[in-house]
């Protein structure tokens, strides 16, 4: 992704979050700061293209939050306290489900409304613009409507009903406090808006299935396949999950299936034969990828160094052993790089991986102590799935892309739909497509999945996703969406969805915690907002 001075709009535009978290007078004071909302900016195609870059830069800024904070940490497979390398673990309250009015996990709606307003501004300024070709304008609008739907879907799954901010009143000088303060819309209204944006995105993309028609960057700019993937994700979610006044609609499965099948068939995608190559930083935008967040040396890193041992201050290096019994002596060659283990998966999660499954060694690097008899005793595990590359100077650069959508996710989503439909042959087909690649040369008939009843299939799909999508922001959403029986209890409330023998959330006392609370400063500064029910 190219990020120029023209596109560094974050600092200017993030003030728009003030419309939901500051006093009225503060918001009024900030309104004139905006330059990009004035008539002096929206004049040329280059400016519109630059703004598209800026919107994607903003999306990259939110990638860690979307993937790790929202999608990973609550999944019941992270340790809290101290990592195996001796560092204090971050975000312990989130990992432990310790949510209340004073512990909200994130604040200010995760700062997503500033990003949404950037999308709103592009839509307002470019929809009727005459300085850009109709084809390119439509493609850009397809991107922006898709990204706005993406943000609102995150907000919907996190908070339920949220304010629907779709205009640019503050930028245009309409400083009516009633437009600065906005109550949370009903969950059903938010879902309706998400679906509307997705349809507009699809309409604007039209028949353009190319991943890079205007040379911006292959698979790292939002594209039609990403919109169809998001449609599949949204409609699958809405078919199974009731939120507030928005009751799950099983009929949405048909829409989800249609678009996910389109993604699988219409975009030239194929799974790589080697699982590890999917995340190779020298093999970006490969045939399996649908949409990814780009990181590059000298531009931005992905922060997964927080899953890795530290050579200088950690307690693992030269004090522990590898699986073959040899000394743990910087096996990843990171001595010249910065890393510190602030996140670590649990031992029980690591142990679900079969040694013949290639995903095990492509994902994890375990370390061991030795007991008095010289036997290896598990110590901890670093996650090595997406650790970038060593540059020409031998220094590791943490520049692996964050992949939001890839083909195996489509297959396993289709397996979940097939399970809802009672189509066991398709459940087997989709699971085994993913599983067979994972075992590779070790594949044998005993590893093939044979479908059973709904519960057996649902848990098998979850387990396959657990192994396939480590560090890709899937497990928390899976636990909330997937159920023990058709139309029954979500796995987040069951022992089957846990690695610890007890449900991640107690349904009787913690059901409200599936949604996140709003922080007090946000509530104090906006009289129109109400706290999430239960908090």
List keywords for this structure.
single chain, 535 residues, mainly alpha, Serine Threonine Protein Phosphatase 5, Tetratricopeptide repeat, two-stranded antiparallel sheet, 20 helices, disordered N terminus
Describe the model.
By secondary structure, this protein is mainly alpha-helical. Among the domains are: 223 residues, Serine Threonine Protein Phosphatase 5, Tetratricopeptide repeat (Alpha Horseshoe), CATH 1.25.40; 106 residues, no CATH class. A two-stranded antiparallel ribbon has the order 1-6. A two-stranded antiparallel sheet has the order 2-3. A two-stranded antiparallel ribbon has the order 4-5. α8 runs parallel beside α11 and α15 packs antiparallel against α17. The N terminus is likely disordered.
Layout of secondary structure:
Layout: H1 10-13, H2 18-21, H3 24-30, H4 45-61, H5 63-70, H6 92-95, H7 112-126, H8 134-159, H9 177-180, H10 187-205, H11 224-240, H12 252-266, E1 289-293, H13 347-350, H14 358-363, E2 364-370, E3 376-383, E4 389-390, E5 396-397, E6 402-406, H15 407-421, H16 424-439, H17 454-468, H18 475-481, H19 507-510, H20 520-524
Antiparallel strand pairs: 1-6, 2-3, 4-5
Helix pairs in contact: 4-7, 7-8, 8-10, 8-11, 10-11, 11-12, 12-15, 15-16, 15-17, 16-17
């Amino acid at each position: 992704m190219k990020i120029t001075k023209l596109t560094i709009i974050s600092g200017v535009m993030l003030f728009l979050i003030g419309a939901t978290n500051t006093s009225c007078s503060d918001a009024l004071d900030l309104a004139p700061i905006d330059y990009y909302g004035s008539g002096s900016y929206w004049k040329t195609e280059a400016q519109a293209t630059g703004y598209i870059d800026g919107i994607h830069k903003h999306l990259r800024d939110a990638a860690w939050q979307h993937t790790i904070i929202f999608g990973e940490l609550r999944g019941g497979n992270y340790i809290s306290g101290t990592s195996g390398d001796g560092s204090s673990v971050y975000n312990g309250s989130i990992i432990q489900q310790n949510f209340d009015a004073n512990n909200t996990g994130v604040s200010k709606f995760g700062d997503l409304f500033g990003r949404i307003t950037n999308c709103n501004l592009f839509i307002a300024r470019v929809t009727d613009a005459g300085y850009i070709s109709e084809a390119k304008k439509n493609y850009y609008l397809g991107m922006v409507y898709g990204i706005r739907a993406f943000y609102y879907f995150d907000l919907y799954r996190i908070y339920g009903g949220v304010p629907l901010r779709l205009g640019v009143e503050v930028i245009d000088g309409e400083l009516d406090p009633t437009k600065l303060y906005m109550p949370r819309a009903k969950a059903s209204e938010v879902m309706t808006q998400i679906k509307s944006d997705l349809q507009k995105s699809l309409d604007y993309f039209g028949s353009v299935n190319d991943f890079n028609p205007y040379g911006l960057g292959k698979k790292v700019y939002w594209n039609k396949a990403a919109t169809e993937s998001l449609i599949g994700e949204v409609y699958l979610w809405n078919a199974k999950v009731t939120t507030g006044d928005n009751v799950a609609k099983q009929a949405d499965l048909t829409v989800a299936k249609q678009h996910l099948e389109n993604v699988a068939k219409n975009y030239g995608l194929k799974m790589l034969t080697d699982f590890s190559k999917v995340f190779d930083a020298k093999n970006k935008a490969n045939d399996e990828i649908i949409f990814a967040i780009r990181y590059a040396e000298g531009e931005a890193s992905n922060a997964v160094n927080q899953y890795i041992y530290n050579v200088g201050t950690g307690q693992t290096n030269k004090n522990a052993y590898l699986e073959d019994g040899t000394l743990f002596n910087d096996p990843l060659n990171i001595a010249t790089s910065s890393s510190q283990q602030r996140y670590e998966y649990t031992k029980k999660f690591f142990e679900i991986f079969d040694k013949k499954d290639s995903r095990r060694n492509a994902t994890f690097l375990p370390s061991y102590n030795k007991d008095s008899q010289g036997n290896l005793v598990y110590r901890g595990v670093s996650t090595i799935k997406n650790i970038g590359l060593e540059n020409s100077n031998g220094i590791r650069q943490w520049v692996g892309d964050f992949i939001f959508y890839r083909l195996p996710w489509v297959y396993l989503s289709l397996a979940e739909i097939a399970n809802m439909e009672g189509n066991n042959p398709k459940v087997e087909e989709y699971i085994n497509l993913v599983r067979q690649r994972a075992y590779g040369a070790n594949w044998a008939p005993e590893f093939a999945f044979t479908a059973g009843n709904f519960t057996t299939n649902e848990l098998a799909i979850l387990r396959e996703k657990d192994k396939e999508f480590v560090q890709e922001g899937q497990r928390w959403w899976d636990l909330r969406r997937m159920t023990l029986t058709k139309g029954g209890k979500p796995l987040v409330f069951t022992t089957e969805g846990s690695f610890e023998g007890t449900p991640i959330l107690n349904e009787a006392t913690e059901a409200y915690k599936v949604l996140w609370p709003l922080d007090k400063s946000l509530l104090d500064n906006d009289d129109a907002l109400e706290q999430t029910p239960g908090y």
